[in-house]
Known about the structure:
With about 350 residues, the chain is of the alpha+beta class. It has a domain at about 15-140. The protein has helices at about 15-25, 40-45, 70-75, 125-130, 130-135, 150-160, 170-180, 185-200, 215-220, 235-245, 245-250, 255-265, 270-285, 295-305, 310-320, 325-335; strands at about 50, 60-65, 85-90, 95-100, 105-110, 115-120. The longest helix has 15 residues, at about 185-200. The chain starts with 12 loop residues before the first helix and ends in a 21-residue tail after the last helix. The relative contact order is 0.16.
Amino acid sequence: MTGARGSGGPAEAGRAAEAGDVAAGRAAAGGVEASRAAEPSRAAEPSRATEPSRAFGTAVARFPLPSPIDLPRTLAPLGHGRDDPTIRFARDGIWIARATAAGPATLRLAAEPGELVAEAWGPGAQLAVEAAPGLAGLLDDPLALVPQHPVIRDLARRFAALRLPRTGQLLAALIPAVTEQKVTATEAHAAYGALVRRLGRAAPGPVALLLPPDAADLTALPYFEFHPLGLERRRAELLRRIGREGPRIESWTALEPAEARARVQTIDGIGPWTAAEATRLAFGDPDAVSLGDAHIPDMVSWALAGEPRADDRRMLELLAPYAGQRARVVRLLEISGIKIPRYGPRFSPRRIAGI
Length: 355
C-alpha cells in the first residue's frame, strides 16, 4: 500500500510485485534474461515488411531480437492491477487494447526465439503493429546505464533483458496516473478498472478487452458519476479537465520528454509525480523520477545507502550519478525484491464509492 504524497500516487513497486508474479507464472510469453542488451536501432527494423493477413483482417510483423527480452516484466507497467481490462498477460503472449488514429485495435506481442511477433486486429491493426517496437522496449537502450554501485551492477546483470516500454500515447498514460494520486494501490487499481468498465469500449479481436477511456467520454461524464467508481470530486474534475485538453495533450508527444513533462504540469492538479508517471510510459523516458512518492525514496536510500528512510532530496542525491537513467535505476530496484524496513501503521484503503 502507499501513503499520502504531495502530488503523486502509489509507488510502482506495487505493480512491480504483481509483475513478478505474472512473469513467473507466464514465462511462456517470452520473458528471459540475457547477458547483453538488445541494440535498439537494429531491433526496431522488421525482418520483413508488415504483412496484412487475410484471416480476420489482422496485421502481422516480426522484429528481430539481437538478444532475449523479458516481455512480461517490460510490459508490466502498462497494467494497473491484476484485473486491468485493457491488458492481458497470457501464455500465448501479452494482449493490449489500443486506440489509434485509424480506429481501435487489439495487439498481441510474443517473444519467440530471435524475434518479437506482433499481431493485431481491428481498424487500427496496422498502426498498432507499427507501435510494437516501442511498446516492447526495442527502442530502449539499457546499455546507457553505467552502474556505479554494486547493487545496481548486480541488478543490471540479473535483469539485462528488462526494457522500458514506450506507448507514444500521453493521454492514455495520464488517466491511470490521475486515478493513482494520493491513494493506496488497491484503491487506485479498483478505480481505474471501474472507470474503464464504465467508459471503455470493447476492443476488436479474439480476446475480451476494453479500450482505455477517450477524451470525449471523460469530459461528458458528470463529476458526480465518478464517485461510484471510487473517484472523489478532485480526481474526477481533473480527469474531466484532461479530457477537455486531450488533443493538446497528445500533441505534446512530439516534444522531448522533459519539455512534455513540464507542459503536463501546467494543467491544474498535475504535479511532478503524475507527470513523471505518465511521461515515463508515453516516452519510455529513462530519467522520469516520480517525486512525492510515499515509498520510492525509502527504497532507493535503503538499497543504495542502507538508510531505511529518506525524502525526495536524499533520493535525488543518491540517484545523481545516474542522471539521464534515474528511472531505469528505480525500475530495477522495484523488481529486485529488496524489502524496505517497515515502521508504524500502514495506510488502509478507503471505499470512496461507499462514502
